[in-house]
Amino acid sequence: MSVDAHTGGSGFEREYKRRRWPMSRARLIVLVVVLVNSALHMSRSEDFMPLWAQVGFVALMLAIVGWAWLEQIRGRTRVGADGITVRSALRERLVPWQDIYDIRAEPFPNRRTDGPLLYAYLYRHDGRRTLLRHVDDWQVPDFAAELEGLRESAVRHRGTAWERRPETEERIRMRTGHRKAWEHSVTGAVIILAVMFPVMIVRVVIGAPAHPFLLFVCVPAAAFAVVAVVQHRRWRSLVPSYMREP
Q: Does pLDDT of 155 surpass 60?
């Protein structure tokens, strides 16, 4: 089960765990095949890729797959008298009730039919947010009721009702805009990195120097820096529309 309920003095105690994988079996098989095929091609590209680049690429893929697997196996959210504890792939963090500003459901940016459409996020008074692992409409059967239960429990433990504070809402928007800027920077660097593979192959075919360090390290790093500067300057335009409404 994704939700384990416990009775106790705190009234509302829960543990949310993985109930099902956030993608279909077919999509998971395709992803594994693509990763294995990429690793095999990389290991046979001695003429195009130096050894350090091959090792780095395989290590990066293993790290991403390992992190995603740990996130699904270890990730969980526990609710108790002392607050909400969120455990991710590598760490566990307790947020006391008094530090919680709000608990909200927000849409997943890239919606799929075989994954969650709404996630639950915990916001602190300084605008920081924490994803409540496995508290979403994919893992929790009655997501709306569970979210309402969390909010009612927070009110009971804090002793104060929910209220919107303009200064905290501005901090939330600012952190969201800058977080989106970093996400766009990483995406831009990854796209440039992917483009560098055919560029290097063309250079090798025509007999030009390959310069793998320049293509796979310097150029993506420069793209990341440029996109980061531009996106952080326009962070307000990156805030989702539903956050701009009063």
A: yes
pTM recorded for the entire structure: 0.78
Give residues with Cβ within 8 angstroms of 71, minimum separation 6: 88, 89, 133
The pLDDT of residue 11 is above 60 = no
Q: How far apart are CA 205 and CA 201, in angstroms?
A: 6
State the Cα–Cα distance between residues 48 and 36, nearest whole angstrom: 19
Strand, coil or helix: what is 20? Answer: coil
Query: What tokens appear for 102 in the block?
Result: 């709000």
User: 168: which 2 tokens?
Assistant: 């905290």
What are the φ/ψ torsions at residue 89 (nearest 5 degrees)? -65, -35
Residue 2: per-residue pLDDT:
52
Helix extents (H) in 17-81: 25-43, 51-74
Tokens of 11: 């009234």
Q: Using pLDDT thresholds of 50, 70 and 90, give the confidence band for residue 4.
A: low
Give the closest residue to 99 by CA, choosing from 133, 129, 132.
129
Block residue for tokens 């991710």: 88
How far is residue 208's CA from residue 202's CA, in Å, rounded to a whole number? 8
